[in-house]
Amino acid sequence: MEVKEEVHLKVEEKYQPPAQLVERVWIKDYESLYQESIKDREGFWAKVAEELHWFKKWDKVLEWNYPNAKWFVNAKTNITYNCLDRHVKNGRRNKVAYIFVDEDDREKKITYGELLELVNRIANGLKSLGVKKGDRVSIYMPNTIEAIACMLACARIGAIHSVVFAGFSEGALRLRIEDAKAKVVMTATYTKRRGKKIDLLATVQNAIDGLGFVEKVVVWDRDGDVLNGSGGLFVSLNELIKNSSPECEPAQMDAEDPLFILYTSGTTGKPKGVLHTTGGYMVGTYFTTKINFDLHEEDVYWCTADIGWITGHSYIVYGPLACGATSVITEGAPDYPNPGRWWSYVERYRVNVFYTAPTAVRMFMRFGEQWPAMYDLSSLRILGSVGEPINPEAWQWYYKHIGREKCVIVDTWWQTETGMHMITTIPSYPSKPGKAGKPYFGVEVAVVDNKGKELPPNTVGNLVIKTPWPSMLRTCWGEPERYEKYWNTIPGYYLSGDLATYDEEGYVMILGRADDVLNVAGHRIGTMEVESAIVDHPAVAESAVIGKPHDIKGESIKAFVILKKGVEPSDHLKEEIKQHVRHILGAIAVPDEIEFVEKLPKTRSGKIMRRVLKAQELGLPVGDVSTLED
Ligand code: PRX
Questions:
Q1: At residue 366, what are phi and psi to the nearest 5 degrees?
Q2: Ligand 1 atom having least distance to the Cα of 390
Q3: pTM
């Protein structure tokens, strides 16, 4: 995409946060603290880190050997100690950590004291299976307390978790288990969505077929009717919990010891295993959760993401637990059994902070405001948004029909790689619908052209980050060169891959990806991954995939497909190809549209020019085609 295009915006509205909210926010004066945090970045983050528990303090806050950072050098801690023990020791033993509700409206609550015991039992169970510090454990589980406990159990003993979203299918799961060389896979017998049971165990069985390095599959037997004393490869989580001690010393982790791998899509190749480490990630997620959601002791907080994505890791698990918050989590579809489901929980649990994605807001817009109108949403104070730009119409609807014009909307721009919020409107200064806000404390961003020249306000360019931050990714698992690419493409900067502008007041507006990464319903999907799944179908010779604007999902997938010689195109075949993608990758990656074509636009070196396809599809100027083969 060409940068340097001028964007002229109409005079925009600003929304002031309500006075009673500003009165008690943790940080009232953004500007002066921001300046301070930039002047003394290390001092700033050290002060934040002081709020957490360290077995041993750092010798140095930051060691920056471009592009490699070490934060809290030589410090020792355990993130689960900060998320659990610290609270249990300080009066929160009986405070509810999670309120879980399933699609059948069955509720389960767990306190900090109980969660610590559960985590310890699982941690001891993992130890008994031979899991050690540094071993990888893949977790393929539904959004439940049990899944969170499994993540924390890994962190307790220093094993590296790699959570795979349970909506992914066996191909995507296998690839991630294989890449991480997971010693143990943790799963559940099933999850439920729209009233249907989805068999997770069967998917795991297929995914690990022939992977000799997987030593054990730990299964949460949800109804206790599948694993009847089975031995060998499969171990019952229920039994492990029952038979293990509720006490487990937290491993002394170096601040730079790996905490988890989370796979995410890039422009090329297979998904990258983004690696996050212990200390910096803990500090970043703790502080952003507390400040940006203005979390106070009595609050009920609800992030509607799934633990399978970074939003779940940072803002369902680690951030809120580090803050000692009470969180709501749910399993299943937001609009099942009816579109009032979420709002009924806001009313029932008196939710104060609600964090969701624009795609969900747009879906509820379509259902109509009569659904939220049926419920008392007056407990809400802060509404968060994440995953994609929130269009002003959705922003207004969210503000009016969910926030009832009394809440602050906190848009949060960040990525799997950044670990924590990087650009956001903290709840103490006015927000502008459609603009993510200003850079976070200690974070310096810029909008630059392809050569790295900083661009003036209101000009489209690459969004880059100029300096290291504590929860930045440290590497890509097994592929350090892919990590370096973030910092080497435009030397001197971390390249986010997004296009953005900023205005005279410093508000950043995100315009979407500059590369071939799709954002479907807030989920990041690589064009290459979908293309490979399509080409895997025996009738297909070649394929190219583009994203098209979509009213609810933000983007939908369209695939152009060249069939093998002699194969007859048909609607039936289109369905078959879609099913094939569903089987390999999962429902989120299935193209909405398939078009059979004879040829694809390529460069002379054979690279598919997706941008040409996209321009043609959307009736836009095709741009520079001098490299086009024909
Ligand atoms: O394009 C941006 C978009 O989501 C990308 C990151 O995707 P992922 O790593 O899956 O993480 C999603 C959850 C943080 C970004 O490169 N994105 C994320 N948040 C926003 C956003 N775009 C605009 N506004 C946001 N608030």
A1: -65, -35
A2: 24
A3: 0.96
